Amino acid sequence: MDDKEYVGFATLPNQVHRKSVKKGFDFTLMVAGESGLGKSTLVNSLFLTDLYRDRKLLSAEERIMQTVEITKHAVDIEEKGVRLRLTIVDTPGFGDAVNNTECWRPVAEYIDQQFEQYFRDESGLNRKNIQDNRVHCCLYFISPYGHGLRPLDVEFMKALHQRVNIVPILAKADTLTPPEVDRKKRKIREEIEHFGIKIYQFPDCDSDEDEDFKLQDQALKESIPFAVIGSNTVVEARGRRVRGRLYPWGIVEVENPGHCDFVKLRTMLVRTHMQDLKDVTRETHYENYRAQCIQSMTRLVVKERNRKDRSRNR
């Protein structure tokens, strides 16, 4: 009797899952912030890879003269049969000049260019196999040495918060004591709210989620900005080999939740909210850009039509 009443559409999620796994996934992550805050080290730590092995280190004089560049590093990662094409967009030179007026502009232009390319591909005749290079998330690194957000931090985030999901990062948390980390986090959150900056908002949990997931989600929300430490070095700690930093006074473990928010950042970025970051990019940031493009094209068409009508009436 059960077989007669079973149509079979309950297997649809399995069909979608198989198709998605076969196709693979794309994710584009942008990292921004001044030099020396550990951006490349953190990215390598997050994805257990080395994306910067060919990087040329610049002297202090060269960094001062350098303008903001946009560089891309792509790598294919496979885990338990699931393929991820990860693209890291770096912004060397950002914030390093003596005059940093509008140094965020090349970054904003790059994000808009990716939207424009996707819009063109989506509007073309052949829409199969469209490459999605839209920036899904921007990790913005905030210096631990100041008293909160600098004017450059405010200008950058205000210029980009309508274009990309911004996740603020308090860099080099091992230079601060735990009370200092708490104070800086509170100060940064207050300033983000004061200046009307719209950082990435975690979606509300569904009512049917288990309590452990709800507690984890709440802990992630309360950790903003994530205070992180990056390290590609394996050290010995209490008979265990861990990734961390060795100091004369002890060892800072990257993956120890008591030492920093690295595990929480990786959980949010990879395990729990990667798809939501992509959804917000598609449904909010890209749709806003697409709507502006269509409005601009409509105005041009109407303007041209009115011009032709006036020409005919003369």
Structure at a glance:
The protein has 314 residues and is α/β, with parallel strands linked by helices. Helices cover 45% and strands 18% of the residues.
CATH topology: Rossmann fold
**Total tally of structural domains:** 1
CATH superfamily: P-loop containing nucleotide triphosphate hydrolases
Low-confidence stretches: none
Radius of gyration: 23 Å
Spatial order of the strands forming the largest sheet: 2-3-1-4-5-6
Helix/strand order, N-terminal first? HHEHHEEHEHEHHEEEEHH
Can you identify the CATH class? Alpha Beta
Number of strands: 9
Structural class: alpha/beta
Regarding quaternary structure, how should these chains be classified? single chain
Instruction: Please give the alpha-carbon distance between the first and last residues.
Output: 79 Å
Tally of individual helices: 10
**Percent range of helical residues:** 40-55%
GO molecular function: GTP binding
GO cellular component, one term: cell cortex
Domain Septin-type G: 23-296
Family: Belongs to the TRAFAC class TrmE-Era-EngA-EngB-Septin-like GTPase superfamily. Septin GTPase family.
